[in-house]
Amino acid sequence: MRLLQQLGAVALVALAGSLAVGAAGWNAPLTLILGTLTAVLALLVYAWVVRRTEHRTPVEVARSGAAGALGRGLLIGAGLFTAVIANIALLGGYRVGGWGSVSGAVALAGFTAAAAVTEELLFRGVLFRIVEERIGTWWSLGLTGLLFGLVHLLNPHASLWGAIAIAVEAGGMLGAAYAATRTLWLPIGLHFAWNFAEGGIFGTGISGTDGPRGLLDGVTSGPAVLSGGEFGPEASLYSVLGGVVVTAVFLVLARRRGHLVPRRRRTGPAGQAEQTGPAGPTGTLVP
To answer: Does the structure show a pLDDT above 80 at 282?
Structure first.
């Protein structure tokens, strides 16, 4: 029940924000304001509904340590996409046609803020976290990553390969980032920086979405497996490989920190569900 309540509350904000941002028609100041307001409201609603349904403080979005975690996520996301686009460019799949649009980059910042925050709250804050309590980290990572990829089939220029790529490089990586840190701020920063670098800086498509030009007028060409084709660089094999590497690093960190939750098993004559290992017999995560 709490899963549905939390999903419903955050999804309502996400839907209203998406409609508002869409109605702005990429007007730079309006899109930035509406996108930022959507992100802030979604965080407030998430914190409220978690307190109401779980009777606890939502430490995963606590203000303490938020700046540092968000900053690390921004650096990782921007650095990873820059490495990906550089490799694509080295093989002739990306070039800069000139300067793009500052106003376009501003509008994309607002659009990306709303998308990154609402998607992380829905998929990592609600789905991954609650499902993980039942089936453990590994199964939850696979299931929510798959769902994240499937949702992107609704985007323009979507393809089965693009959805698989998103499931692996984004769904897996962002879930692993949360598992390693147990804060949503790092995956939010990573998600925002990746998307903004993709569209707002390098001027390429973001998950098939048609938007304004970013700071650079980027042009992709060549085989879709290299450049990502119409879906954008997220469908590039380089993005998948980069995402897999970063996912592995996060999972190693999660294991070292004792953050991997085992699958819940039934034990004892009463058939009570119990967790063993890092989560402890009561299912409470060891900090």
So the answer is: no
Amino acid letter, 10: V
Distance CA 102, CA 244 (A): 32
Q: How confident is the model at residue 115 (pLDDT cuts 50, 70, 90)?
A: very high
Burial class (CB in 10 A: 0-12, 13-18, 19+), 116: buried
For residues 158 and 209, what is the distance between their CA atoms, to the nearest angstrom? 9
**Secondary element (H or E) of residue 56:** none
What Å distances lie between residue 34 and 8, 22, 198, CA to CA?
A: 20, 10, 21
Phi, psi dihedrals of residue 112, rounded to the nearest 5°:
-70, -35
202, 56, 50: which is closest to 126 by C-alpha? 50
Structure tokens at 124: 């990592």
* Per-residue model confidence (pLDDT) at position 16: 97
Cα–Cα distance, 261 to 162 (Å, whole number): 29
User: C-alpha distances in angstroms, 19 versus 35, 38, 47, 101, 113?
Assistant: 11, 10, 23, 24, 14
Closest CA to 199 of 169, 167, 232: 232
Domains of the chain by residue range: 2-263+275-279
Q: What are the tens digits of pLDDT across the range 12-69?
A: 999 999 999 999 999 999 999 999 999 999 999 999 999 999 999 999 999 999 999 9
Helix or strand (DSSP H, E) at 274: strand 272-274
Residues pairing with 99 in the sheet: 216
Question: Quick check: 166 and 207 in contact, CB under 8 A?
Answer: yes
Gap between the terminal Cα atoms of the chain: 26
pLDDT in tens, 187-243: 999 999 999 999 999 999 999 888 899 999 999 999 999 999 999 999 999 999 999
How far is it, in rounded angstroms, from Cα 122 to Cα 99? 35
Contact 45, 126 (CB under 8 A): no
